[in-house]
Request: fold
Amino acid sequence: MRITVIGTGYLGATHAACMAELGHEVLGLDILPEKVAALSAGNVPMYEPGLEELLRGHLAGMEGSTGRLRFTTSWEEVGAFGEVHFVCTNTPQRRGEFACDMSYVESAFDLLAPHLDRPVLVVGKSTVPVGSADRLALRLAERAPAGEAAEVAWNPEFLREGYAVEDTLHPDRLVIGVRSDHAEEVLRELYAPLLEQGTPLVVTDFPTAELVKTAANSFLATKISFINAMAEVCEASGADVVQLSGALAYDARIGGRYLNAGLGFGGGCLPKDIRAFMARAGELGADQALTFLREVDSINMRRRSRMVELAREQCGGGFLGRRVAVLGAAFKPDSDDVRDSPALNVAGQIQLQGAQVTVYDPKAMDNARKLFPSLSYADSALEAAEGAHVVLHLTEWQEFRTMDPEALGRVVGERRILDGRNVLDPVVWRGAGWTYRALGRPS
Ligand code: UDX
Reply:
């Protein structure tokens, strides 16, 4: 099929390359010429394992590629090319509010509409407040020369950064919100290779499809905050949250995934999605149903303050004149994304309280520097830790999980480590003469 992908961020770039992998002819559009230039040259502007190889394997003009994938800034070209248009623009949190900023999605629909002069399907993938698809469908039919023959469907995306390609080519499920048998048939044909591999397909109306995404992210955030609330109780009672979550995980009804206590969740999705969900529920008069998400958000933010407190204790009660090493800047490992990163948030707070903070991350240094130019940055964990009064392990990259406590011990000022992700082995670190502290574990 001839499909277009509008917006080439994490979601769009991955979707475009994966649709080419499924055998479709794909044209990606972005309004930023530099993004289109980078992608057209075979460069993915973010760190996402496997994506660049996939892109190059399908990019037109690349030697040995299938040539099924191209990028453009032209709406006219997109309109002329596509039978199915995917809208993958982002929906960030509105400045100073909980609600979601729909302007990028709306402008994508508005800029596309005038070029739709024959029957097409416009499929929204962005995470939007429930009710948006309905409104966008009306708006599109009013503005497109094809009128109601420019049909809308909603097909939320559940990909995780760091596993974006895997999650797109082998999803847990496909959810499509449709209003006609025709739309369902088109999407069944488009995703045929995934359906053949046994991926469950859930066909719903618009609001249910929109809600599946926000409900899923709310559930995951709640599960993380649940175990972090348990970590607070563990801290108060002397219990060990790692053993606790390990024991809970044996209960198949609970399960061990998203049950790792630590510094909590960040990134471009979970925090803003639960806030947008609360805001939308308020508009719908269902705010009571989601008041618990406010608590989920608070528990999550309290973990960051608690880490700052623990670090202050380790620095002898104050940060002035102290050197603090921060390992990790990305919001999670295998990503260079620093949006609402718990690690950088903690680093920033400590720096503001007078410490000299040096950060190292395997992939997120450039993005971290842009967001927090006042922090110091080092080229390795060892360099960051030089002379440090305390080392904070805040993003669990593999390289940190396997760090040698002896080697690190030789460069630090004092052997004190705070494990914000509960993945280092306390026995090993204490055995090497370190003071090891973690969130929710006995000291
Ligand atoms: C999330 C959803 O998983 C995905 O389905 C959705 O499409 C987008 O939002 P992502 O933001 O890439 O994906 O990150 P995810 O891997 O879910 O992790 C989110 C945050 O939770 C990270 O900061 C991670 O460190 C934290 N986390 C995760 C925990 O603190 N504990 C856990 O047990 C799991």
